[in-house]
Amino acid sequence: MRARHLIVASAAVLVVLAACQTQPQPGQFVNRPDDGAMAEMSTSPRPEITAGAATVQGALLPGMPPPLDPNDLYAADRPNALSDAVRNDPYRIYVPNNGSASVSVIDPTTYKVIQTVKVPVSPEHVVPSWDLRTLYVNSDRGNALTPIDPATGTFGKPIPVNDPYNLYFTPDGKYAVVMSEAAHEIVFRDAHTMAVEKTVKVNCDGVNHVDFSPDGRYFIASCEFSGDLLKVDTARQEVIGQLHLPAPHPMPQDVKISPDGRTWYVADMQTSGLWVLDGDKFTPPTFMATGAGAHGLYVSRDSKQLYITNRGEGSISVLDFATRALVAKWKIPGGGSPDMGQLSPDGKVLWMSGRYNSVVYAIDTTDGHLIAKIPVGTQPHGLCVWPQPGRYSLGHTGIMR
Question: How is domain 11-386 classified at the CATH fold level?
């Protein structure tokens, strides 16, 4: 969350008191009451897009690679299943230091920073391109995307792009989707030249995180500061639904779809857990508490578990997809602020930025113990582990399919 959106102390107290009055226990699902103002939803009158039905009928987004397994969106992400395009890229962790205007490069075999490179101000995330051949450093207040050649680790000349808080790619590889948070826009750009194709104004505050439906025909985006979710038609490039999360002060963060494509999970940093919803129907969700400051969501390499970073309490919750039960909570010794990152290629290490501790955590996924804590710059944010398994990237820190 950006500094300019920090809540003043008096308001923060009211938020905390309101959250405490309604906070469920960890692992508990709660149906929030629809009181109109807190669960308002508007949807397009056009026919609803149903991902499951469209996939069965073969109606994928034109140009999108068909799924390897119709029952597992992450089937291409198995341990060390590197494509030929990335197989020879050096294994590195690229860490954008939001407060230091730099990227720290870590050698994960030694747990040491081997390079620090200055980039335009306020780098937020390091994002793999759809074709896996470029990593982009998103500098929102610096209004630039800085390309990195992952084959050599060379940083290129920054590309002028307005307010790129986050970056995604349509499943057909045709468009880059820039989440211009401060500008209240979702901007579709040419995936290679970054030329603007269409700008979509959004009626929410803080639009920033996204995931795509199994057929690629729609995506769901979170609006952090107004507590909304948007449903966007990928081909028409327009908002077709808006849902306000039913909580006193929702603050949605990362968005992730389940391996079977039927359930969507949205982390909520203020309500401290996950919203669970049907993306096709886009109806009001249920809620499951995980821990203070729920933030980032990452799928295990075997597609069985979801790792949830609880930034406010320094822990990682583990959810079992099959049972929808929380099966573990890993606490960082001495506390911390695990934010965003990704898994190692073999899935044995979860790499996470420590947003307010100026470190990066390496966490063992077999039992959750801390392997290493590596000093980096100020306010490290959406780090990228590279290379990663998968055929193509949908963006963020590596949504691979």
Answer: Methylamine Dehydrogenase; Chain H (2.130.10)
